[in-house]
Amino acid sequence: MFDINRFVSRHVTGRSRSLFQSDMDEHAVMLDARIRDRSVLVIGGAGTIGGAFLKEILRFCPARVIVADVNENGLTELVRDVRSTADIQVPADFRTYPMDFGDPVFAKLLRVEAPFEIVANFAAHKHVRSEKDPYSIAALLHNNVFKTRQLLEWLSVRPPEHFFCVSTDKAAAPVNVMGASKKIMEQVLLSFSAAFPVSTARFANVAFSNGSLPAGFLTRLEKRQPLSAPSDVARYFVSAAEAGQLCLLSCMLARSGEIFFPKLDQQRDERKFSDIALDLLDNLGFHAEICATEEEAREKAAAMDEHSRNWPVYFFTTDTSGEKMNEAFYTDTESVDWSRFSSLGVIRNSMPSPALVLAQFLDELRTLLEKDTLEKHEIIALIHHFLPEFEHLETGKGLDAKM
């Protein structure tokens, strides 16, 4: 059987030990003191990062855990997974609910089940492809910005001891709407930092996470379809377990308003998607047959027999909107503490936009999104006015047009 964790360790992250293990070990006593016997709410827990966070926090024996996610099938697999993992103790009060965190029934859950000492939100649109048109952008902004603000308002009635909401490296000098939405989310989060402890984390691509391109490689192989990837896009990667640990450390150890990110080196840690595809095929005993076009790759895949060890691959030069060639976790205008943790940088003293400015922008954004006739450039212009560092990279092409 294919050992995905071993492959990620050897061929993607290049680490045999978790990047964050030293910080997990050093702060284990504090983590235990802040988690043991506490009540935990995990939103979006059926996703790769939310599920990894759940596994990490369960190791510290909370008394009660509730997980909410719109993915009913994902919640089912999550329960099977945590109950089948040897070193995890699931509390007696462990419940999952298939619901949207913006729905009235979720608000009722908060009213009845609160207080929660620890709340972590992983429910988000995370793909750059989600900005194809005004409809998809509106859904992205409602989920990543407006529902997050609503959640914070609901929680402010009975505040948690720790609140975490996941961000992305694409929030640093964003060139796509997804990254900009997360930068706005960070501003919303900071606006509550005086009311109760809030934190977030920007981090790398999670190797083989749900919906990611590497995970798609495995699906394409299962369906005997060609692999396809950009040849010129490099990204930082962490394993799923590392993603869970990063979020746990930020949730439990950050001071209110801080943003955590992994200490990674561009020369050592960046990997191209095309290289991962080639390594994956080689690891599985296949030879990559490079094709000049998508059509050639599809035709060769259709002609393969069960004994073929050649696998068609199509690599292309990126030309879609919002794609950065290289990622960064912070900007020159942000103050970074490099000394507090061995594996983490901490963006500190981030200043939220003035309350009236933020409120006015969100009102204008909501009004704009409610229009029946709406152009993508109108949304981008309004966001750019609020976030001058947002320089949208528009090519007129989207990922839905690619294999």
Describe this structure in words.
It is a single chain. The protein has 403 residues and is of the alpha/beta class. Strands 3-2-1-4-5-6-10-15-14 form a 9-stranded mixed sheet, with helices on both faces. It has a 3-stranded mixed sheet with strand order 7-9-11. A 3-stranded parallel sheet has the order 8-13-12. Helices cover 42% and strands 17% of the residues. The protein has 15 helices and 15 strands. Helix 4 (48-58) packs across helix 10.
Strand element count:
15
Q: What percentage of amino acids are in beta strands?
A: 15-25%
First and last CA, distance: 27 Å
Give the SSE string: HHHEHEHEHEHEHEEHEEHEHEHEHEEEHH
Counting H and I runs of at least 4 residues, what is the number of helices? 15
Calculate the mean pLDDT score and round it.
95
* Biggest sheet descriptor: 9 strands, mixed
Q: List low-pLDDT spans.
A: none
- Rounded to the nearest angstrom, the radius of gyration is 21 Å
Structural class of the helices, strands and pairings?
A: alpha/beta
Strand order of the largest sheet: 3-2-1-4-5-6-10-15-14
What share of residues is helical?
40-55%
Q: What is the 3D shape?
A: globular
Question: What is the structure about, briefly put?
Answer:
The chain is an alpha/beta fold. 42% of the residues lie in helices and 17% in strands.
List the helices and strands and how they pair.
Blueprint: H1 4-12, H2 21-26, H3 28-35, E1 39-43, H4 48-58, E2 64-69, H5 72-83, E3 93-98, H6 104-113, E4 118-121, H7 134-155, E5 162-165, H8 177-191, E6 198-201, E7 205-206, H9 213-222, E8 227-230, E9 234-238, H10 240-253, E10 258-262, H11 266-269, E11 270-272, H12 273-283, E12 287-291, H13 294-303, E13 310-316, E14 335-337, E15 344-348, H14 355-369, H15 376-386
Parallel strand pairs: 1-2, 1-4, 2-3, 4-5, 5-6, 6-10, 7-9, 8-13, 12-13
Antiparallel strand pairs: 9-11, 10-15, 14-15
Helix pairs in contact: 4-10, 7-8, 14-15
